[in-house]
Specification:
The complex is a heterodimer of chains A (about 110) and B (about 110). Chain A contains no helices and eleven strands. Chain A has strands at about 5, 10-15, 20-25, 30-35, 45-50, 55, 65-70, 75-80, 85-95, 100-105, 105-110. In chain A, strands 2, 4, 5, 6, 9, 10 and 11 form a seven-stranded mixed beta sheet that branches. In chain A, strands 1-3-8-7 form a four-stranded antiparallel beta sheet, with no helix packed on it. In chain A, strand 5 and strand 6 (about 55) form a beta hairpin. The termini of chain A are far apart. Chain B is about 0% helix and about 55% strand. In chain B, a hairpin with a 5-residue loop joins strand 5 (about 30-40) and strand 6 (about 45-50). The chains are: A mainly beta (about 110), B mainly beta (about 110). The interface of A and B includes residues 50 and 104 of A.
């Protein structure tokens, strides 16, 4: 099915470990985004990529890095995980000018 | 910069009753407005969006929202809810020259039989 695919769906990390969350879309969208969702706080933008080859910080970028590997793929890396990064992470994509996002099903990350 | 306030964290309602979920936004520029729905353990799905034109916007599943520029509001309504409407609803805003969506904190709609 067409859409946004995130891997993994669940992950438990120990404090200080690193990992990369993968995201791929097959809708030929130009823009891609990473959000985190925490109870009572809605979704907060971590990083976004308006087009292939560009990335920019969102509201809460500290502790994260991103790579826009190609038009389809946008990965999020935690270099040294902290308990404060326990959250549900969503990747999304959109066509420039359309402003309707398509979301992946999320990655539930727990840092112990 | 834009911000969104969803005034109610949870709204309980009986099945077949009407419901209104409130959303207010703040922005110094013209905006686009959105409502998304999130069912348990799923991603977000677009319900409806206001880009321009008629201030009354109709979306999927019988929902509609009205853009009120003077009150900076974009409230979501449904005349008769079903059990299956139980979910979390997010209001979101973006500036017309921005790619970024800013989300509210969400309202959990709980439909009771």
């Amino acid at each position: 099915n067409a859409g946004v695919t995130q891997t993994p769906k669940f992950q438990v990390l120990k404090t200080g470990q690193s990992m990369t969350l993968q995201c791929a879309q097959d809708m030929n969208h130009n823009s891609m985004y990473w959000y985190r969702q925490d109870p009572g706080m809605g979704l907060r933008l971590i990083y976004y990529s308006a087009s292939e080859g560009t990335t920019d910080k969102g509201e809460v970028p500290n502790g994260y890095n991103v790579s826009r590997l190609n038009k389809r793929e946008f990965s999020l890396r935690l270099e040294s995980a902290a308990p404060s990064q326990t959250s549900v992470y969503f990747c999304a994509s959109s066509t420039t000018g359309d402003y309707g996002y398509t979301f992946g099903s999320g990655t539930r990350l727990t840092v112990v | 910069a834009q911000s969104v306030t969803q005034l109610d964290s949870q709204v309980p309602v009986f099945e077949e009753a009407p419901v209104e979920l409130r959303c207010n936004y703040s922005s110094s520029v013209s905006v686009y407005l959105f409502w998304y729905v999130q069912y348990p353990n799923q991603g977000l799905q677009l319900l409806l969006k206001y880009l321009s034109g008629s201030t009354l916007v109709k979306g999927i599943n019988g929902f509609e929202a009205e853009f009120n520029k003077s009150q900076t509001s974009f409230h979501l309504r449904k005349p008769s809810v079903h059990i299956s409407d139980t979910a979390e609803y997010f209001c979101a805003v973006s500036g017309k020259s921005s790619y970024k969506l800013i989300f509210g904190s969400g309202t959990r709609l709980l439909v009771r039989p």
